[in-house]
Design goal:
Number of strands: 22
Structural class: alpha+beta
Strand content: 5-15%
Helix content: 40-55%
Radius of gyration: 41 Å
């Protein structure tokens, strides 16, 4: 059996008090009306108490007020497992969560200081505990809320109005200021319970009132007591006054006089499973009208007045209806209205202590009500009134006694008709007939001229109405053309909308339409009628007639009708254009009239090759950032094919150079990713890395030959050659790379790097320092220390003369410019999979740092030098990058990581150290991104998300204009697109939708990415913001309409939008199927939604696709997929097939699923129970015995597991909740 639970999260408590006395608080949480069925899993009881804590006294805005804040570290308590069926959830819907904030008084335990004096009152006592605040939250609010979650954040004073008095709030301590105090609480349901409650209905009787019952039978009796010894007997007025006073006292204590009950429905459930079982309204009270009683004349017997009495009842318990049960309920009542008739019984039972006066007779009134009115479209509640003639029993007063009842549902059982809503918005004018009559007797009349004349009169009428409302035109200010034009466009649209509303609401539009209608009808008869067809005025009708003459039959299809309508529409558009051109010269269009008949084309179909080339690059970058590497590579190859087969692109040297350069960089980044030790060993392989490096070398070679002056690509190509041990070719490429950057090439005389250690190399600057650092690493690997030293000197000179940032003056004393250059270069090399060069640069950087430190110590007489924060940060970044790759690639002199240490943990420590060393925002951002990257291999998602959010928070302080505008070279890729996508997915998977939305909105202000918009749409989807989600999905689809996930989520959105969008959902689903969707989790979610829409065949297909995809991926098949498939088959009355699926679940070994042993056995037990029921229906007794033995074995194993986990707790019976509900 499916089950779920409810979770309560205590966030923080904020109290504003009028005194600063120290508080000691405890919070008690209790499930009211739980009948010991619904409990907290932590305590095994219906109550839970937090530890005693002292809130923090904060600074207050007023000297007379004191703010106390108590945090609970996001304390979350879960309920015990709740069976997902209507009976159990009906009981849960009537449970409330009572939260009490209790103050612990320490002074209560102290004994009195001294005895009070004799005769003096005792000193005031202090209770040990005092309830300061009490909150009562009905769980039904959670079950019927959007997303089946509830958040309380309002101040205490605003709670009653914000929640329509559904939440009870009591502030019992007078020192608390309700308007400035609040308690933040979240109540959520797990996925299973939320899915079960989707579209549920809660039915209940809101109130009941019995008016004017017989005072003798239903009223409270009072006998006058006269004192025979009294000198003066009381007057009639005295007796009347005494009667009213005593009756009011008896009414106030009526529970000692009589009990009043009102029950509606059958006493016992029928065999068919009647959904509306017996309900009893609560708190029956009799009411005495004292004001009316005081107006009764003295001569009239007040004891016989029935209009002075009435009986009232409050709401009954609620009935929970699953969406399928609700549909069944609606269908049954719609077929047979008599099924909606329910028995009503009203009883008055005297209390035993009042039997002497009230007697022992029990009064009963019986009747019936029909609740079929609740099925009206959009109806949430109905009021039913039953007259005296329909009441049967004792104490009914003719033409006076009535019974009133109110029956309601949280949501309409039948949705309101959209047509009804439109009718309520638009009120047509009284005269709905045509204003003019057109005679059809004249066969020679000019039908086309009449249509044109009517169009002219229509346009003139519209122009007159417009000038009457808007006599002044919209003007723009030439001094501020941009802003004024935008404002004018907005005012124009607002004016247009306002004018259209005016025409519609005042009946002008209807009048003009009715004037045009007969003209258009005559035109249709003339064009498409017998005469028009004979004259060949319609191409569509002409072809139809030719078909008739050939086959002697006319086949009028929907396509024929659509073609005729299209032809008519185009013809009318042409005539309107002709009329407009004849009336207003400004509307003449310098284009052939035949253009109106052309069909619209999609922009993608007319995109130029260059546009397609750029779009493929954007999509490839987006796929790379989203870790869809196979799709990204396919897009890169498609760009290459496009360049190769297009002469205009292929002949452009820059384009040819760029396309192969992008592909080569992509391959290098993939090699870097695969070579990192943060991936499993079965994924990492040197052969794969070698293949990628070889392909990158080929791509970069083509790019280099196409454009040798691009030094960045040349440097990458040289590094690839070095890693491939082609040093001679690499030196030649580096030589070309350096020479291409020199400003004064006339004085450059060095012809080869073989003489790099000579004086000629002094002229090789300024160039990018990375070039000389790569040379230094190469010479170090070749055991040429003198050349390596010279290369480092040239890197230092290049940094100084090239005016690179940060300035050399900030590099400390002695200068650590070389350390900075080597660190930056090493990070660059590791990002492109140049592991040998990267390790060599790190080694050189550490050696230089050690040398500078020794030099500084020598100068400072033994004082420890302090490295500049930015350089220390970059050095730690380089060490972190080196720690992520195999240590065996290091040089012999490089420091080794101890064998007993986890290299990933060491990398995390180094990354954190880089963040601690950073001072500027840019350094801190880079450090936090590195920390997040390394933490993702070791820690859980929460830690990684916090690191990403720290980086994003710092980045948000940089103006977006600097990131996107002219200063992009300074802040380029402050936070890369891949980081935004990664943190967006992690926030989405963690359920932190609000943070996800805010993060991705900021990211969308920097990047244009289809994946960003897709994740944003999913976040909106999870928070029930369907309009925002649809807008984001549309924008994502415009950027990339070949992403199957986008179409799948669009299908899901349509399903959540309601039954009227099911066809759209299916179309989007089919598009996703054509693109090849592979997300098994999304397939299951879609299947669940289609099940909710009773599209079982579609749901079955989706689940089977999920199972097939799991098999293709080589992953363990999900029990949830198999279970959903079995449920769908059972719902389609395919019992035999469902049994086979359940049997597959029972035959699944424990090591083939991603569940722990307890969950796995519980899932198998649920499957066994459903399989047993189906086998019983099929009459397969032999198999039933086998399944029954499996059930016993699984139940015993689960019992033993529960005993081992909770040895002090008694086992919980699964049917206890159902039994108690029935007793209730």
């Amino acid at each position: 059996m499916d089950a779920g639970y409810i979770s309560l999260e205590l966030l923080n408590l904020s109290l504003e008090c009028s005194r600063s006395k120290e508080l000691t608080l405890r919070v008690d949480v209790e499930l009211l009306n739980s009948f010991d069925v619904y409990k907290w899993a932590t305590t095994g009881k219906s109550t839970f108490s937090t530890p005693v804590s002292k809130p923090v006294l904060q600074q207050s805005d007023s000297s007379e007020k004191f703010n106390f804040l108590l945090g609970f570290d996001d304390l979350a308590i879960k309920s015990t497992v709740i069976d997902l069926n209507d009976s159990v959830l009906s009981g849960l819907a009537n449970v409330s969560i009572n939260v009490r904030v209790i103050s612990i008084n320490a002074d209560a335990a102290r004994p009195p200081s001294a005895k009070p004096a004799k005769g003096a009152p005792p000193p005031p006592s202090t209770p040990p505990e005092e309830t300061m605040i009490e909150l009562c939250i009905p769980i039904r609010m959670v079950l019927i809320s959007k997303g089946t979650s509830f958040s309380l954040a309002e101040n205490f004073e605003a709670i009653p109005s914000a929640y329509s008095d559904q939440i009870g709030i009591k502030v019992m301590n007078p020192l608390i200021v309700p308007s400035s105090s609040s308690f933040s609480i979240n109540i959520v349901c797990d996925n299973d319970l939320a899915e079960y409650c989707l579209g549920c209905k809660l039915l209940q009787w809101d109130w009941g009132t019995l008016t004017c019952p017989s005072a003798v039978n239903w009223g409270i009796k009072y006998a006058d007591v006269l004192d025979p010894k009294a000198k003066v007997q009381p007057t009639a007025a005295d007796l009347r006054t005494r009667y009213i006073e005593n009756i009011n006292k008896l009414v106030a204590n009526q529970e000692k006089v009589a009990n009043f009950s009102l029950t509606i429905g059958a006493k016992e459930e029928s065999e068919d499973g009647e959904v509306l079982a017996m309900l009893q309204l609560s708190n029956g009270k009799i009411v005495f009208n004292q004001q009316l009683a005081s107006e009764v004349p003295l001569e009239e017997d007040i004891r016989s007045r029935s209009d002075l009495w009435s009986v009232t009842w409050q709401a009954s318990p609620a009935i929970f209806l699953h969406r399928k049960t609700a549909r069944k309920f609606v269908a049954l009542i719609s077929e047979d209205k008599t099924l909606a008739t329910l028995a009503v019984s009203i009883r008055r039972v005297p209390a035993p202590e009042a039997a002497a006066i009230e007697g022992n007779t029990e009064n009963v009134i019986n009747t019936s009500v029909n609740v079929a009115g609740i099925l009206a479209g959009g109806c949430r509640s109905i009021e039913l009134r039953i007259a005296d003639k329909d009441l049967q029993g004792m104490g009914i007063v003719a033409e006076k006694t009535t019974l009133a009842l109110c029956f309601s549902s949280n949501e309409p059982l039948v949705a309101a008709s959209a047509l009804d809503e439109v009718k309520n918005l638009v009120i047509p004018p009284k005269d709905t007939s045509a204003m003019k009559q057109v005679s059809s007797n004249d066969d020679n009349k000019d039908v086309l001229k009449e249509v044109r004349d009517e169009i002219v009169s229509t346009i003139e009428r519209i122009a007159q109405e417009y000038l009457a409302i808007y006599p002044t035109p919209i003007t723009t200010n030439s001094s501020n053309a941009t802003g004024s034009s935008a404002a004018a466009a907005m005012n124009k649209e607002e004016r247009k909308l306002e004018f259209m509303t005016y025409l519609t609401s005042n009946g002008i539009f209807h009048e003009l339409r009715e004037n045009l209608k007969p003209r258009v009808q005559t035109l249709i008869r003339d064009k498409f009628g017998v005469r028009g067809r004979a004259l060949g005025r319609s191409g569509t009708m002409k072809s139809l007639d030719l078909s008739f003459s050939a086959t002697n039959s006319i086949a009028v299809t929907s396509e024929t009708v659509e073609t005729a309508l299209s032809e008519l529409y185009v013809f009318l558009q042409k005539e309107c254009s002709v009329v407009l051109n004849s009336m207003f010269s400004e509307t003449i269009i310098d284009r052939d009239v035949n253009d109106l008949s052309k069909s619209a084309t999609i922009n993608d179909e007319e995109a130029t090759k260059m546009q397609e080339y750029k779009k493929l690059k954007e999509q490839a970058d987006d796929a790379t950032a989203d870790s869809r590497y196979a799709a990204a590579e396919a897009l890169h190859l498609e760009r290459i094919q496009l360049t190769t087969h297009c002469v205009a692109l292929g002949s452009n040297r820059d384009i040819l150079h760029g396309v192969y350069a992008d592909y080569g960089i992509f391959l290098l980044q993939q090699a870097s990713r695969l070579a990192s030790i943060d991936l499993p060993k079965n994924v990492v392989g040197s052969a794969q890395v070698s293949i990628l490096m070889a392909r990158a070398r080929e791509a970069l070679a083509v790019s280099y030959k196409a454009k040798t002056e691009d030094w960045e690509i040349s440097l990458l190509y040289a590094c690839v050659l070095i890693e491939s041990e082609q040093s001679d070719e690499a030196e030649a490429v580096i030589h070309e790379t350096i020479s291409s950057q020199l400003k004064d090439k006339s004085s450059y005389t060095l012809t080869s790097l073989q003489h790099f250690d000579g004086y000629d190399s002094d002229k090789l600057c300024p160039v990018d320092p990375k070039c000389h650092c790569v040379l230094a690493a190469l010479f170090s690997m070749q055991k040429l220390p003198i050349r390596a030293r010279k290369a480092l000197l040239m890197a230092n000179r290049s940094f100084v003369e090239g005016d690179y940032q940060p300035p050399v003056s900030t590099h400390g004393t002695p200068k650590r410019t070389v350390v900075l250059c080597l660190s930056v270069t090493s990070v660059y090399l590791f990002e492109h999979a140049f592991l040998k060069l990267g390790r060599a640069c790190v080694d050189l950087a550490l050696e230089c740092e050690l040398a500078v430190t020794e030099k500084a110590q020598a100068r400072g007489k033994g004082k420890t030098p302090v490295t500049v924060p930015h350089i220390r940060h970059m050095l730690k970044q380089a060490q972190t990058a080196a720690a992520l790759y195999p240590v065996e690639l290091a040089n012999e002199n490089a420091p080794q990581i101890p064998a007993n240490n986890n290299p990933l943990l060491s990398a995390v420590d180094l990354a954190i150290e880089s963040e601690l060393a950073a001072q500027s925002n840019l350094d801190k951002i880079a450090a936090w991104l590195t920390v997040a990257k390394v933490q993702s291999t070791v820690y859980d998602a929460t830690v990684v998300i916090n690191s990403f959010l720290n980086a994003i928070k710092l980045a948000s302080e940089i103006p977006v204009s600097d990131i996107k505008g002219s200063n992009r070279h300074i802040h380029k890729d402050v936070i890369p697109l891949s980081a935004f996508i990664t943190v967006g997915k992690m926030l989405l998977n963690s359920g932190r939708y609000v943070e996800c939305v805010s993060t991705l909105l900021y990211a969308s202000s920097i990047y244009t990415s289809a994946t960003l918009l897709l994740i944003l749409a999913v976040s909106y989807l999870r928070t029930d913001k369907l309009d925002d989600a649809e807008e984001a999905l549309v924008e994502s689809n415009l950027l990339n309409n070949k992403n199957a996930d986008t179409w799948m989520y669009f299908s899901l959105l349509c399903l959540l939008g309601g039954a009227h969008r099911v066809e759209e959902a299916e179309q989007a689903l089919f598009q996703a199927l054509r693109l090849g969707m592979t997300s098994t989790a999304l397939l299951r979610e879609l299947a669940t939604q289609f099940m909710a829409m009773d599209r079982m065949q579609t749901a079955e297909d989706l689940i089977r696709r999920a199972l097939a995809q799991e098999a293709v991926d080589g992953n363990r098949q999900s029990l949830l997929s198999r279970k959903l498939l079995a449920n769908v088959l059972a719902a389609q009355n395919q019992a035999a097939s469902a049994v086979e699926e359940y049997q597959k679940i029972l035959a699944t070994p424990s090591d083939d699923v991603n569940k722990d042993d307890g969950e796995f056995k519980q899932a198998k037990l649920d499957a066994a129970e459903k399989c047993f029921d189906l086998l019983n229906q099929l009459g397969r007794e032999e198999e039933m015995k086998i399944v029954k033995s499996i059930m016993k074995s699984l139940a015993l194993d689960l019992h033993n597991n529960n005993q081992n986990k909770n040895p002090n707790h008694a086992p919980v019976q699964r049917n206890t909740s159902q039994r108690v509900i029935k007793e209730q």
